[in-house]
User: What shape does this take?
Amino acid sequence: MQWTLVIPLKPLARAKSRLAAASGEGLRPGLALAFAQDTVAAALACPAVRDVAVVTDDALARRELVALGARVVPDTPGGGLNAALAHGAGLVRAERPEAPVAALNADLPALRAPELARALDEAAAFPRAFMPDAAGIGTTLLCAGAGTQLRPAFGTASRARHTASGAVELPLAGVDSVRQDVDTGDDLRAALALGVGPRTAAAAARLLIAD
Assistant: This one.
């Protein structure tokens, strides 16, 4: 099974606001873009991924992510993360009604294609399935097979909400890179320890994160 991934991305001027304490406001937008670039590049390298649709209104992100091979669509609803995901999934399904669709966070700079493939292959056994984040509270990946609506419920405590909605939690072993999103300096340190993509490595080299 090959999936279409829908990746939401805020305008870079507003993205990753909690990271500012570690990065400063000047470097934060560039880090957010680097995270998204490395996430998209890893996703497109995954054999279980057919294509990637990024939902964003940011002009710079659009240009850079299209150059990597992603399709970029505007965030027409403008109603936040879950509205953007539902919009992106709806566009995919309007073209290919039976397409398996998965929502993936844009802030997974350590993402590895084989680990993503493992998670997506596990998800193929269920109508809806999800991967919790490294903190065990949120969600980094939500999958919906053919004929099943995505029904995203991302945000605070989304692990509990996705469980309550009937989505199956995927096995956690061997997929650390799929779970390690980055919101804070501590998260970035954890991602760097896993090994981030080249764009994040270059951006992170410009800042000093205290131990």
